[in-house]
Amino acid sequence: MRGVSKAYGNIKALDDVWVHIEDKEYVCIVGPSGCGKSTLIKCVAGIIQPTEGEILVDGHSVLNVPIEDRKIGYVFQDIALFPHLSVKQNLSYGLAVRNASANTVTTVTNEMLDLVKMRDRSKSYPRELSGGAQQKVAVGRAIESGSHLFLLDEPLGALDALVRAELRYELRRLASDLGLTVIHVTHDQEEALSIADRVVIMKGGRVVEVGKPAEIYHSPQSLFTENFVGETNLLEGTIMEIAVTSCKVKVGTHMMSVLGKGKKVGQKVVVAVRPEFITLGSAVPSEWECRIKEVSFLGGLTRYTLEDDGGLEILAHVPSGESSSLRIGERTNASFGDGEHMLLFDYPIEGLGKELALE
Amino acid sequence: MPTVSFMNVSKSFDGVSALDRVTFDVDDGEYLCVLGPTGSGKTTLLRLIAGLLKPSTGTISFDDEPVNEMISQNRNAAYVPQQYALFPHLTVLENVAFGPLARGRPESEALSMAMKSLELVRLAGRPTAFPKELSGGMQQRVALARGLASGARLLLLDEPLGALDARLRLDLRHKLRQIVKETGLTAIHVTHDRDEAMSVADRIMILRRGRIQDYGNPKRVYDRPAGIFVANLIGGAAFLEGVVEATGGDSSTVRLREGVIVKTPSHLLTTNEPVIIGVRKERTRLADYNAENIIEGDVRETRFLGNSREYVVRLDNGDTMYSRQFQEGKNERFRIGDKVTVGFDRSDVLIFAYPPQGLGRELEIV
Description:
The complex is a heterodimer. By secondary structure, chain A is of the alpha+beta class. Chain A has two domains: 2-225, Rossmann fold (3-Layer(aba) Sandwich), CATH 3.40.50.300; 247-356, CATH 2.40.50.100. Chain A has helices at 37-45, 87-97, 102-115, 131-144, 161-178, 189-195, 213-218, 223-228, 352-356, and strands at 2-8, 11-17, 26-30, 52-54, 56-57, 60-61, 72-76, 149-153, 181-186, 198-203, 206-211, 233-242, 246-251, 254-259, 268-273, 279-280, 288-297, 301-308, 313-319, 331-335, 342-346. In chain A, a hairpin with a 2-residue loop joins β5 and β6. Chain A is globular, with a radius of gyration of 25 Å. Chain B has two domains: 4-223, 3-Layer(aba) Sandwich (Rossmann fold), CATH 3.40.50.300; 235-363, CATH 2.40.50.140. Classes of the chains: A alpha+beta, B alpha+beta. At the A-B interface, α5, α6 and α7 of A face α4, α5, α6, α7 and α8 of B.
């Protein structure tokens, strides 16, 4: 996608989007609702015509290629199987339309049934299947079309949380096994991080950044991404001292040493630390003395909301079992570690609220 | 005194059972989450409490008074359905203030309650907007604000955060609990999202096929789930088939496939009894040689989940186990193909009697 824009009157749904996707790559596009992610893949599919820019597939512009000739598999959230056809008939429908020989129809359809692990349900009708099973058939039908570029628009959005978490790995495995190139749009960051080769973060019609999942989560380029892909602590502060590769930052009444270059003394900054890198307890150095405001047991992790004497709130996720003695109202020390997990961002020009806004 | 109680309540539609002999209490000021797959009876349960459905059999009581015959309007309960219906011709503020006004509250009080509720759902900046100008997620929050402002002391929420983006949902669920607690309401919140239920509920009810599978505080349900279905729904685990090798004292042993022996807590077990053991992903440690159980295998898959990384390990006996590591940072400690050991303690093992209809059926999310 080269400089793709789409305007509706004065509103730019897409604003100068550049994304390059490699052959056989699995790319997830995430962003809050209204960020343009669905518009973007509809442009690739040919459902929406961009106002500006170019979309190339294998080096050839596709903007003038009609939808049906783009050879793209497209699966969206609202499953559209033929209700009066069985699973098997749904899967073979495309082949029949394309006048494939009876032999081919049988072979390919059976192959698809095996791929999506639905052979034992081949005679069922869509209404007899769970949402997850219906979505598998939809994916199988898209694969059967023989295309190598797949566009998935919230393909798991309508499913129960646990089913969704299982199915995403199946989807990923299928794409790897068949050597498909996939663009998968989702609002679920965890889904994106867990299956993508690269993640595209969008906001307000623009690409905020593109990166590998671990980079996006642990060392994002932007504050928006840091906040969007998982919970985090954002501490506003001021640079007090500068060394070669680190700075001293004043946050409330605390002085923190944070890795970071190119800052100026007196500059406003935001220090970001993910809650799982905060350690609690009396054995921890007494940098931050806090009172425990809220505790909630999440299973593997326990979530603590802490407040220091200056009223600053800190969120900590501690593996359950490591801190089980801490109770609401108690005082404890919180440590941010040796700075390895702290990120330093310039204070956003338009303010923190605007930078982080999810809509 | 329980605010809501169900005594043997069943509901069927045209002979098809939606809820089957359900008995439970909700305490005053409690935050209850009802968790279960699509079609498990969650919405039916809420609609029965709201008075929009009548039980086929059994008794529903509020404060120990039967309400089976009480009409919906008199129940002092605010029901926020999944398919929220806002008044299209009223502004956001008017929609939210509608309830208190209809109950005869003075206008100034109704408006201030409405504004406060809008602040809580982060829509205080849009009081004059009409529903059609808002996104689906915003409309859902207006519906939620309307429930909060209604003045009812029982809040019935059907997937109140379902239409929201994952990130916003994460922020708002903690907010939601905070509001309920601050205003002293009793809340019954239906969801299919296990993380959501765990993080907001005082107690969790697990429904499957119209029946209660488990009911207790999140920690108890997590630590000592009532069955395999509950254990699976409430947090990822590996479930392995085995046979009791020996019992006695405070420890037992279970023999897995290929003769792998696992030390387990003592339980009411009989030697040679077929069982299922469950070990949670976050309770296993890789390459930790101090664990009470150590099983060898190789890494088959790594899954980056943001705050953690999950390793899928194929044990040498052919079984699969998982290990979820928090605080690992950017780099994988192990790679696909690495030989590793999976370690866990005796107390981390859940034991279940072998299910009569097989393990597969227990693990189905229906």
